[in-house]
Amino acid sequence: MTASPGALFALGLFAALWLIAGLWAVLRGIAMQRRSAFVAAQTERLAGLVEASPYLPVIVRADWRVEASERLGRWLGLDRGVRDFDELGGIGQGADAGGLDREELDALRQAIIGAQRGAKPFTLSLTPRGGSRTLVIHGAAAPVAVGGPGGVLLWLSDATAGEQALARTRRERDEAMAAFEALSGLIEAAPFPMWFRDPELRLALVNRAYVRAVEAPGAATVIDGGIELCEPVAGVSAAEAADRARAEGAAQLRTVPVTIEGERRMMRVVDVPLAPEGGRPIGIAGYAIDVQELESERGAHRRFAEAQRELLDRLSAAVAQFGPDQGLVFANLPFRRLFEVEADDVAEGQSLARLLDAWRERGRTPEVRNYPEWRQAHVDWFALPQASEEEWLLRDGTHLRVVAQPTPDGGLLLIAEDRTEQVQLAGARDTLLRVRTATFDNLFEAVAVFAPDGRLHLWNQRFRRLWGVDEAALAAHPRVDALMGGLADRLAKPNQISTVQEVIRAATLERTQRVGQIRFADGRHFDFASIPLPDGNALLIMLDVTDSRRMESALRERNEALEAADKVKTAFLSRMSYELRTPLTSIGGFGEMLRAGYAGQLAEQQQSYVDAIMESVAVLSRQIDNVLDLAQGEAGTLAIERAPVDVGALLDGALAEARGLADGEGIELVGQLGDGLGTVEGDAPRLGRLVGGLLDNAIRYTAPARRSGGRVLLHAEGTLQGIEIVVSDNGPGMPDAIAAVTRGQQAGTAAGGIGLALARQLVAAHGGTIEVMSEKGQGTLVRVSLPRRA
């Protein structure tokens, strides 16, 4: 079958088109393959870049699926990569897996939700469990082409090293700030002025001490006004001195006078340039220390040294002082005269070695066998740890006692004492001993000395004659038991000889002093005592007291008679007190009736008479009470009531009662009562009479002596333990009353009547004490101390 040309043409055209289409398809495939290879290579390159980047991209899709590389799992400490959001917390990764804890995971979830809803970017810092890695997450809504609708793109970075460096930097900063604050506080609290100047040498910082020193209201005023602490000295201001320190590059010290709070004081000022190592100075720091006391002490030390040397010049002992270089620094006049030292030797500071050579030539050193060795030994005095003492016998017969005392500064103090006269006096000591022995033998007392072993060592002739012992027997130095055993028959009671032996034994062995009494057969009485001596011996002294015993017996008999008379007197006073009280009560009663008008209305003159009668009755009643109390006190029957007594009210009442007498006599009566008087336990009426009697005595005995200017003071103070009442006056004084009260006796009427004696008894009955001090022509002071509870 033959085709037509048209068909063939159509067929050929179709084949050609098909071929062209195939060729185009092949070329298109080749181009797409090349494009795919390029994209794959580009993708691989980008993936490598992302993997090598310190940031890790993570896509969280709307369904909470996670697209990230395996590096995310490693950063979170997980066993494998993360494909779901909950796997970030280690869910499904094993019990020991890392990941974020629940709180951090919830925080990240909330941030992602915020980014999904509001396209709000966020930044979080998270720390996975089980590690020290710190991850910083920057999140924002992802492009739709990348994360799809609702996707969030997270960029994670490992900030562990940065956080550690930041923490270290913060810690260093905190430490530096703490150190700076501590230093600032130290500078601010420094007791001396401190300041800082900027590079332009202007004041930039001052402490409180600086502000106080310049008397400024505050630091800002000082800095703004440029108030300088130091005044210009020799034309150099404080800023110029600081500039000099900056130019020198080292601290500069100067001592200048400064006026502080109106007082001129010496200050040691130091300017210190501050600069980094090898850098330009950033400022000048300065401080000032008050050295006024130091300078004063130096001056005082210098004056003390001068005064000491003046004093040493007046001593009889020869004194020389050598410095640390062994040169002579000072020599007093006795030293220069004794060793023939010239003033030039002191001025030139001659060494001890050269002086020893010069002294040897003049015969002022002792003669020794090996002089060089002796000389070196004495030069070595400077190195001795303690003082050295020697005796020097010079050629002219002079005896010297030489003491060498090393001083703390390495010097030497040399003291020489001329003991020639002492040696000569020692020769006369034997003569004195013989004189003492003669005196010992002629003492009125019988004396014997026994050695520590009990043997008789020394005795005088009166001892030998008293006991009737031969000199030969005593010269054998018998023991005390052998000696006294043969003398028992000399005593009225032979067994008393053991008492004498015991007293001597106590003095020799026990080193205690004992006394005793013995009576001889002839009627003589002796007091004896044994006294331990410093050398271990015992001294026995026997004194004849026969005459004093006889006198004592007579005095005892007289004292018994006086005691009997005193008892009769006490009974009489007690009887008379009771007898006088009855008529006195009647007089007082009738006087009260007259005053009350029972006998009719009294005229003014009659009323004054009745008042005088009642006043006299009161005075006489008090005197009777005093006499009765005195009598009972001496008899030991004084009864004291115990009740709380308001001391302030009691003293106010006593002052009020004594005020009339004081005004009548022209005496100034002053009361000084403390606040803490409180109460005491005692008898209120008797305490009132006690204080009233003391005031009455003071007023009555001050008035005649001082027509004007008389003054009586009542002073009282209270403590937790008790109260103290003092009554003083500027009258004539009554020293006899002091002795009477001290002895517990009754003073005479010229010295206070029965007042002081009764006062002593009342105070003693209340458990207190009374003290009287008086000086003739100056006045009297009576101090009464009463306890709170008797």
From TrEMBL:
<dbReference type="InterPro" id="IPR000014">
    <property type="entry name" value="PAS"/>
</dbReference>
<dbReference type="InterPro" id="IPR003661">
    <property type="entry name" value="HisK_dim/P_dom"/>
</dbReference>
<dbReference type="InterPro" id="IPR003594">
    <property type="entry name" value="HATPase_dom"/>
</dbReference>
<keyword id="KW-0808">Transferase</keyword>
<dbReference type="Pfam" id="PF00512">
    <property type="entry name" value="HisKA"/>
</dbReference>
<keyword id="KW-0472">Membrane</keyword>
<keyword id="KW-0418">Kinase</keyword>
<dbReference type="InterPro" id="IPR035965">
    <property type="entry name" value="PAS-like_dom_sf"/>
</dbReference>
<dbReference type="InterPro" id="IPR004358">
    <property type="entry name" value="Sig_transdc_His_kin-like_C"/>
</dbReference>
<dbReference type="GO" id="GO:0000155">
    <property type="term" value="F:phosphorelay sensor kinase activity"/>
</dbReference>
<dbReference type="InterPro" id="IPR036097">
    <property type="entry name" value="HisK_dim/P_sf"/>
</dbReference>
<feature type="domain" description="Histidine kinase">
    <location>
        <begin position="575"/>
        <end position="790"/>
    </location>
</feature>
<dbReference type="InterPro" id="IPR050736">
    <property type="entry name" value="Sensor_HK_Regulatory"/>
</dbReference>
<keyword id="KW-0902">Two-component regulatory system</keyword>
<protein>
    <recommendedName>
        <fullName>histidine kinase</fullName>
        <ecNumber>2.7.13.3</ecNumber>
    </recommendedName>
</protein>
<dbReference type="InterPro" id="IPR036890">
    <property type="entry name" value="HATPase_C_sf"/>
</dbReference>
<keyword id="KW-1133">Transmembrane helix</keyword>
<dbReference type="InterPro" id="IPR005467">
    <property type="entry name" value="His_kinase_dom"/>
</dbReference>
<feature type="transmembrane region" description="Helical">
    <location>
        <begin position="6"/>
        <end position="27"/>
    </location>
</feature>
<keyword id="KW-0597">Phosphoprotein</keyword>
<keyword id="KW-0812">Transmembrane</keyword>
<dbReference type="Pfam" id="PF12860">
    <property type="entry name" value="PAS_7"/>
</dbReference>
<dbReference type="Pfam" id="PF02518">
    <property type="entry name" value="HATPase_c"/>
</dbReference>
